[in-house]
Amino acid sequence: MYPLGFYRDKNGELSVQNIKVSELAKKYGTPLYIYDSEIMKERYDIFFDTVKEVKGSIHYAVKANDSINVIKFFSKLGCGADIVSIGEFEKCIAAGVPANKIIFSGVGKAKNEIEIALRNNILQFNIESEEELYDIHYIASKIKKKANICLRVNPDIAPRTHKKISTGEKETKFGIDFQNVKEIYKKLHELDYISPVGLGVHIGSQIFDFNFFNKAYFNLKVLADDLRKSGFMVPSLDLGGGIGVDYKDDIEPNFIEYKRILSNLFLKSDYKLSFEPGRSLIAQAGILVTKVIRNKKTKDKNFIIVDAAMNNLIRPTLYDAYHKIEHVEKSESPKVTADIVGPICETGDYLALERNLNYIDNNKFLAIKTTGAYSSVMSSNYNSRADAVEVMIVNNKDHQIKKIDTIKDIIAKEKLIDFD
Ligand code: LLP
């Protein structure tokens, strides 16, 4: 047997299940994303145990990693999905997620997206404005299909996370202002093609202080109880996602505390609860393997130039995010402090700044850890760079899960104009 996840074998080589990461890097080339299905299962089990007492349903937030195999894996374990586009919807269908387990979130659902989702009988729309309600009602009445509507509430809570991923403050584009919820919820009951299903919150991502969840859920419940007292139907509450993942020290989120919050608030109620975890299910299951192109030394600094770049992993430069970086093979060389940078022509193209690690020779591999979530999915072809290869390890076997466009394929997508 082997330890769970990415571990060092007896020779100090980074491995996953029974496979050496360096072998995968040689077989598939780099940059290379590797996902471990056993960590995905472990993360799902932990989340499931946390919400089972309150009978919560889990809707994997596909935006975290929209690889069809990732969606399918979670679906087979029992997850529904939380989507924000019809593209994600199609991926879920391709992965075998039943449409009636799909929640459609997001501030900007286009009319054609609403119609497709409605025709396919998705579970519910989490809506973010009164304007959206009328758009959905118009389409629903046109095709004579009732739409299940949940109002996403903006609770005006700042959960101390990076400002670009804080979504519950009133200045953000998200949700319906707390004070307007009652009035709009009433309207759900007056529209023929709308079925009210409840209220939702999602206050942001990378949340470590669970008091913020407690506050948001408490306020949501007060509002829902109040609506019920006024005679409205409020069967469900959607509690969103947002549980933080510790990229630096791998400290486990306090799921016991989260469970306690849920039990205190909801155990004695009959609200049907749903959750939309993304990062906490998949972040730790992925690594990005990259090869050192060359070491560059200036008077002031060391640079390790690698073949992965901000187009493969934008989190460090976009959110000042920290990802651990390790040698793939065993190394006992002296420590250096270096910026780990990609080949892209921008100063912002870095994976780590001022990182202290063992010196690494050209052509050796580094592993960038905790890159299962919001990593490959946010990649681009900037600088005409092809995507990274992606593999998933299942039962000691590596499976390539994505065909990679060569630069020829990328060129073939463009149409040449005849300028003569
Ligand atoms: N539900 C809604 C409505 C969301 O907007 C999100 C994430 C989730 C659920 C899942 O949240 P999670 O459990 O993954 O925290 N690209 C950023 C994160 C953006 C999160 C967007 N919304 C990053 O790399 O940190």
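^ LLP complex. The first strand starts at residue 6 and ends at 8. The mean pLDDT is 96.
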